[in-house]
Inverse folding.
């Protein structure tokens, strides 16, 4: 096997990949994805959408039913994880409970039969990189969850993988530690300089960490792009709603002109929409638009004239949640279950809106984002 061990880089390509466990249904289907070398990529989606299946196929714990998987440009289907130079870090960390931190980290080098001097040198170097030298002689039960995660990471990274795969690495930690370890993962990825692929169902985790976010739904990729692209320019209603922070409303295009049109809904009269170059629309076409919650301005209905360039919908306030630096105002508007404005704290208390008040939710026409 050793002769097949690759020296190549950690860029990954999945081409036409599908996986069926039972020959009837597909856990994932039609997966085409390119992940650059050294990227921090998050696979994001609800439980059961196929994230772990993709991770296991890249790792070499499963092979696709059809399709190609290339790492560093070479087809790795059929190769084991060692030959692929991938390593997996599990949610449970799977540390050896009776071995010290040092021996846990050195384990795979010992299995390889590396000389003690070389093994010790590499182990010290890795423990220093992930900052666990000070607990080198403790056993896992004497470490906090966050420290155990670092040991697990060191143990995986010492095999010098070109790709490190992390399956829900933060989900076992409490909220405070999760945020701390999230920052640590990002730091460690930069220190190690290898491709990380991290599976999560938590939107904020993905957008905080990833250079590349892959949003999945029922075995298919809905959108792949930078965190900013996914958040600021979601492709469709599913991505916009899954990432959150947006209001999505549906309607039909009317009065299509060179620089704008209207969107007419069944539960609201109409709002103005922008027309951007390259976007083809037809009169009467059904579309969704997304407006960020933090770009909504609440006005009293009937207030003299709307500011230029704005549009909006009228509704009633059904809930107010104080969030500290902003106030979350929930409305019954545009026929959506949830229509929400994030109002800066200071602004909210200048006008003091209450549950039951009728309001006009206004936004800049240019700020509406057209979905497919
Ligand atoms: P996720 O990681 O997004 O929660 P998975 O990749 O684990 O999703 O699962 C995707 C689908 O494949 C699910 O319907 C799941 O039940 C099915 N599945 C996963 N692993 C197996 C397996 N070993 N045998 C049969 N079905 C499986």
């Amino acid at each position: 096997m050793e002769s097949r061990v690759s020296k190549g880089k950690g860029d990954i390509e999945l081409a036409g990949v599908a996986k069926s466990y039972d020959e009837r249904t597909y856990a994932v289907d039609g997966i085409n994805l390119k992940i650059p070398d050294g990227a921090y990529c998050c696979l994001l989606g609800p439980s059961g959408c196929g994230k772990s299946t993709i991770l296991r196929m890249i790792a070499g714990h499963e092979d696709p039913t059809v399709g190609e998987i290339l790492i560093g440009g070479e087809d790795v289907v059929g190769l084991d994880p060692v030959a692929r130079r991938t390593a997996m870090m599990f949610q449970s960390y799977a540390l050896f409970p009776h071995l010290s931190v040092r021996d846990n980290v050195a384990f795979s080098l010992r299995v390889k039969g590396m000389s003690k001097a070389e093994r010790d040198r590499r182990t010290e170097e890795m423990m220093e990189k992930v900052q666990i030298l000070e607990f080198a002689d403790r056993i896992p039960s004497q470490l906090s969850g966050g420290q155990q995660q670092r040991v697990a990471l060191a143990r995986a990274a010492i095999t010098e993988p070109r790709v490190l795969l992390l399956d829900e690495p933060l989900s076992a930690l409490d909220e405070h530690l999760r945020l701390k370890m999230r920052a640590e993962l990002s730091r460690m990825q930069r220190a190690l300089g290898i491709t990380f692929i991290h599976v999560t169902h938590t939107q904020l985790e993905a957008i905080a960490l990833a250079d590349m976010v892959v949003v999945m739904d029922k075995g298919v990729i809905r959108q792949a792009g930078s965190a900013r692209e996914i958040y600021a320019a979601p492709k469709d209603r599913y991505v916009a709603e899954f990432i959150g922070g947006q209001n999505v409303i549906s309607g039909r295009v009317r009065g299509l002109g060179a620089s704008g049109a209207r969107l007419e809904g069944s539960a609201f009269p109409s709002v103005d929409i922008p027309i951007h170059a390259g976007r083809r629309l037809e009169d009467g076409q059904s579309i969704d638009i997304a407006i960020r919650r933090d770009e909504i301005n609440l006005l009293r209905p009937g207030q003299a004239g709307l500011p230029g360039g704005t549009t909006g919908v009228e509704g009633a306030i059904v809930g107010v949640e104080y969030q500290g630096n902003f106030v979350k105002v929930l409305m019954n508007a545009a026929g959506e279950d949830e229509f929400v404005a994030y109002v800066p704290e200071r602004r909210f208390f200048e006008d003091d809106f209450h549950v039951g008040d009728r309001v006009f939710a206004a936004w800049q026409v240019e700020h509406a984002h057209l979905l497919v």
Remarks:
- The radius of gyration is 25 Å.
- The chain has ten helices and 20 strands.
- The pocket of adenosine-5'-diphosphate is lined by residues 21, 27, 45, 47-53 (CB under 6 Å).
